[in-house]
Specification:
Elements lengths: L1 E8 L2 H6 L5 E7 L4 E7 L9 H19 L3 H37 L4 H4 L4 H5 L11 E6 L3 E7 L3 E6 L4 E2 L26 E6 L3 E7 L1 H4 L5 H13 L4 H15 L8 E8 H34 L1
Helix pairs in contact: 2-3, 7-9
Length: 302
């Protein structure tokens, strides 16, 4: 049985400048599958509706994946041999859904004078309308014995399979050219996704997060260890939610002081089965962290 949670918090830098939270997050528990999704609206001034763009991205993703799961038996039959094509089709559907939402919102809410005032007429005319809503996206999907994920732009996806080790299953190779941000608003957005498919692997938990979480840690080791710790606490979800919300709020004041979103789906039965191993992994991670710290101190001395 799947369960999940999601939460978004405003970063300290946005609090100081009076900006809205540009992140969005959600999770969905379906019949035999679960979705975790986060999106991070771009911060530059031409993306002045990115907080809405991230919201539309989250909605568009859940709607697209739900549509593919309307024929769940057929989907799961074809995934092992056609995963790459199926995921690519999901990505195209997400982009299509997002553009429809953007076009509808813009037609019902034309750009206001106060939104234009930061630009010269020439600057504003040069901005493609979809760029007003520019955003990244990270989505994770789990079935009974498989997982897949997709991503455009920055952010992270972390999985903990039944060996209880936190890993980043998707090697992130952004296909955008230098100095171009991979974004839902790009004209070639459907070609900018990274993705992964992991068959025949039982998942304990999988997380999607915007880049504000990663930048609040000193290293990738610490980032992954964090996911091991919070996974070991999911057995008490209701009390855990309060703790994680407080922690994310504190972390939004570290690193780049950016907004932070975290979304998770997990297998309750496997979590309970593996809770002892998870806690043992947390202790091993602490031991390894102490060894890395000692090694670093030795290097500084010498």
């Amino acid at each position: 049985m799947f369960n999940g949670f999601s939460h978004s918090v405003m970063g300290a830098s946005h609090e100081k400048t009076g900006l809205v939270c540009q992140d969005s997050s959600a999770y969905k528990i379906g019949e035999g599958y679960a979705i975790a999704v986060v999106a991070d609206g771009h911060g530059s001034k031409k993306h002045f509706r990115s907080h809405l763009g991230s919201k539309f991205a989250v909605e568009a993703t859940i709607e697209a994946i739900d549509r593919f799961y309307e024929e769940r038996e057929e989907l799961e039959k074809n995934l092992p041999t056609n995963a790459k094509l199926i995921i690519k089709n999901i990505e195209k559907q997400i982009i299509s859904n997002w553009n429809i939402k953007v076009e509808k919102h813009l037609s019902e809410n034309p750009v206001r004078d106060e939104e234009k005032e930061k630009f010269t007429d020439e600057e504003f005319e040069a901005i493609p309308p979809e760029s007003y809503y520019g955003t990244t996206l990270v989505a994770a999907v789990s079935g009974d014995n498989y997982t897949f994920g997709l991503q455009i732009g920055d952010g992270s996806l972390v999985a903990i399979f039944e060996d209880c080790k936190a890993v980043m299953p998707m090697e992130y190779n952004e296909s955008a050219p230098a100095n171009v941000t991979a974004s839902m608003c790009n004209s070639n957005a459907a070609s900018m996704f990274s993705s992964f498919y992991a068959p025949n692997k039982r998942l304990i938990a999988m997380y999607g997060s915007t880049d504000g979480l990663y930048t609040s840690f000193g290293s990738e080791y610490d980032f992954l260890d964090y996911h091991s710790i919070i996974t070991s606490q999911l057995v008490n979800l209701e009390s855990f939610k309060k703790v994680i919300i407080n922690n994310l709020t504190k972390r939004s004041h570290y690193g780049t002081e950016d907004d932070i979103s975290l979304s998770c789906v997990y297998n309750e039965d496997l979590l309970n089965e593996k809770i002892g191993d998870l806690k043992a992994q947390v202790e091993e991670n602490k031991r390894q962290a102490a060894l890395r710290k000692e090694e670093l101190l030795r290097k500084r001395v010498t």
